[in-house]
From TrEMBL:
Its EC number is 4.2.1.126. Belongs to the GCKR-like family. MurNAc-6-P etherase subfamily. Gene3D superfamilies: 1.10.8.1080, Glucose-6-phosphate isomerase like protein, domain 1. It comes from Streptomyces caeni. The keyword Magnesium does not apply. It catalyses: N-acetyl-D-muramate 6-phosphate + H2O = N-acetyl-D-glucosamine 6-phosphate + (R)-lactate. Keywords: Carbohydrate metabolism, Lyase. A lyase-type mechanism (elimination/hydration) is suggested for the cleavage of the lactyl ether bond of MurNAc 6-phosphate, with the formation of an alpha,beta-unsaturated aldehyde intermediate with (E)-stereochemistry, followed by the syn addition of water to give product. The gene is murQ. Residues 66-229 form the SIS domain. One of its GO terms (molecular function) is lyase activity. Specifically catalyzes the cleavage of the D-lactyl ether substituent of MurNAc 6-phosphate, producing GlcNAc 6-phosphate and D-lactate. Pfam families: GKRP_SIS_N (PF22645). Homodimer. This is N-acetylmuramic acid 6-phosphate etherase.
């Protein structure tokens, strides 16, 4: 679906969108003191969590559906243009170090490809066909989930991604910041976070972008909790790839077990630095290979592995 709309039609469409609305009361904002502008902007940002809270039932339903697909081996794919696309790529890129997921399990697609992360790629967001090609390159399956992200809810790339994914049997989520959006209507799960007009007219990297980041954080984080990637609120699947994360791994094992530093170091050494395995060796009194086997049998769920070890 490549956009071929008359520019006048597009302008008319934009004028109906809450995210594009002009606020005359802010027309002299450039004349205000810096502190007053900062207060105004902070006040605007403070309204975003309430807008997200109003859609928590829809968000939770989408998360449960995503987790069910991912538990069967599916992937979570974000697709968007501009700020929305960048936020999807950001959320996807943070899953491997936080949850030790394979980079292919949570994927961010941005209209125009990697170059669009830092520069504008002309016309990319207007092409639904481009979204279809990007998804076809992933060999999309019915176990996968595609989340279209678009503040306006009309971006052809995001809408095209959802339509193409749904036609292939994948689960679809449409995340928008306008009510009655084409994106939400095209998806199995429509999530519309209506944050209202922006401080700067049409600058949806502001409140809309903040709302999108909050929801994407929920989608990935709570899905990973549902998949057993945490133990309580501890990131037990964290990948210790640098000194800070190695120190964090040690602290997580300490918080989970109450063991001494020496016991923790021995457990981490016996399990090649795997936090879950180290916790299991300490709490269940098993060796490294036994911990690995228990976790494999429990599909990586530490609580289940602990229960099995106690049987």
């Amino acid at each position: 679906m490549t956009s071929t709309s008359d520019p006048r039609d597009l302008r008319a469409q934009l004028e109906t969108l809450t995210t594009e609305a002009f606020r005359p009361e802010l027309s002299d904002i450039d004349r205000l003191p810096t502190l007053e502008i900062a207060r105004l902007m902070n006040g605007e940002d403070a309204t975003v969590p309430a807008a997200v809270a109003a859609r928590l039932p829809q968000i939770a339903a989408a998360i449960d559906a995503v987790a069910e697909r991912m538990a069967r081996g599916g992937r979570l794919v974000y697709a968007g243009a501009g700020t929305a696309g960048r936020l999807g790529v950001l959320d996807a890129s943070e899953c491997p170090p936080t949850f030790s997921t394979d980079p292919s399990r949570v994927v961010g697609l941005i209209a125009g490809g990697p170059d669009a992360m830092v520069t504008s790629v002309e016309g990319a967001e207007d092409s639904g066909e481009l979204a279809a090609r990007d998804l076809d390159a992933l060999d999309l399956t019915a176990h996968d989930t595609v989340v279209g992200v678009s503040a306006s809810g009309r971006t052809p790339y995001a809408v095209g991604a959802v339509e193409h994914a749904r036609a292939h049997g994948a689960l679809t989520v449409g995340l928008s910041c306008n009510a009655d959006s084409a994106l939400a209507a095209a998806a199995d799960h429509g999530i519309e976070i209506v944050v209202g007009p922006e401080l700067l007219t049409g600058s949806t990297r502001l409140k809309a972008g903040t709302a999108q980041k909050l929801v994407l954080n929920m989608l990935s984080t709570i899905t990973m909790i549902r998949l057993g990637k945490t133990y309580g609120n501890l990131m037990v699947d964290v990948r210790a790839s640098n000194d800070k994360l190695r120190a964090r791994s040690h602290r997580i094992v300490a918080l989970a077990t109450g063991a001494t530093d020496g016991e923790i170091e021995d457990a981490l050494a016996a399990t090649d630095g795997e936090v879950k395995n180290a916790i299991l060796t300490i709490l269940a009194g098993v060796d490294g290979p036994s911990a690995a086997l228990l976790l494999a049998e429990s599909r990586g769920r530490l609580r289940v592995a602990l229960e099995q070890a106690g049987d």
